[in-house]
Here is the input.
Amino acid sequence: MIYLHFLRTNWLFLLAGFLLTFTSSYGQTYFISLFAGEIKADFGLTDGQWGGIYTIGTTMSAIAMVWAGVLTDRFRVRVLALGVMLALATACLAMAVNTSALLLIVVIFALRLTGQGMMSQLGSVAMVRWFEATRGKALSLSSMGFAAGQAILPVVFVALFALASWRSLWVLAAVLVVLTIPVILILLRQERTPQSMATEAQIAGMQGRHWTRKEMLRSGLFFLMIPLIVGPAAWGTALFFQQVHLTEVKGWELVAFVALMPIYTLSSIVTTFVSGWAIDRFGVSRIVPFQMLPFALSFTVLAYADTLFMAGVGLVIFGMGQGLQGTATSTFWAEYYGTRHIGSIKSVAAALMVFGSAIGPGITGALIDFGIDFPEQMLPISLYYLLAAAFAAYGIIKYQPTLRR
Here is the structure.
C-alpha cells in the first residue's frame, strides 16, 4: 500500500525514470551480447578478439563518463535526455550499417557511453535529486526499467532472429529509442527543480558536508568501495556477454537459457522493492555490506549447474544481488557524500562501473581462448565478491560514525 500511494502521487516522475533506465537497455551488455554469434561470424572474430574489442570500446566510454556525467549537475534531465537519446539512436544505426571490425570499437564506445553510461546516470541521478526521504522507494520503482528491459528485450529480439537479419534488428532498436523521446519530454514538461539548484533541499553527507568529487577521490571510504562498484559490473556483464559460450559449454539451447530471464527479472524486481523499503526504513549502511553475498552464491551455483533448472536457481540468486545493487549503491553516494555534487560524484562511480563492464568480457574472453571455459572461472569470481563484501563492510563500520543525522 505504501508503494501504491507513493506511485499514485509521483507517477509522472517515476515513469520518466523508468523509461530512462529502460532505454539504457540498447547499450547494455545483455542486449548487445544477443548478437555476439552473428557479430563474430560476420567479422571473423574469436571469443577473445570480440571480448577485446568490447573491452576497448567500453573502456573508452568509461573514461568519457568521468566528464560526461558531470553534465547532470548542470542541466535538467529533460534537456540532457533529448541529446543522449538521439545519440543512442544514432549508435544503434551505426551498428546496423558498420562493416569494419576497427570501427566496431567506435560503435561499442557510442552504445556503451550513451546507453549503459548516460541513460543509467540520468535515471538514477534524477531519482536521487527529486526525492529525499523516499529515495529508496523512488530508485526501486524507477530501476524497474532495467528489470523490464532484461525481461522483455532478450526474449523478443531472440524470437525476431527467425524473421529478420541481426542488422535490421538494430534499426528497430534505433526506432524504439526515437519513439520514446517524445514520451519522456511530455512527462517532464513540469520537471521538478533539481536539488542541486535548490539549496534548501540539499542533504549533506559525512561530517555534515557536501563533498566535491576531488574530496571524495581522496577519501579512504571511496577506495574501499571500488571492488563493490567494479565487481558486479565486471562479472555480471561477463555472465551475459558469455551466455552464448556458456550455453555451448553446458549443452543448453540459447533460446531456453534466454527464456529464464523473466524469473531472473522477477527475483530482481522483488529484491529491488524490498531493498528500497529497507533502505528508507533502516538506512543504506545496513544494506551495503551484504549486497555482494548473493552474487558470490549465484556464481557458485552456476559453476556447478548441469541442468537448466539449476541455471534458473543461479539466475534467481543473481537477480537478488542485482536488486540490492540497483538501489543501495545509488543511495550510498548521496547518503555519505551529500547531494550538491551528486552528478559529478556519480559520474566517477558510473565510470568505474562501465570500466568494470569493459574488463569482465575482456578477461573472461581471453581466458576462454587460453582454454579456461567460463564455468571454470566462476569460483574465483565468487571469491572476488566475498572479498569485495569484506572491504565494503569495513568501510561502513569505519565511516558510518561520521554521518550526522
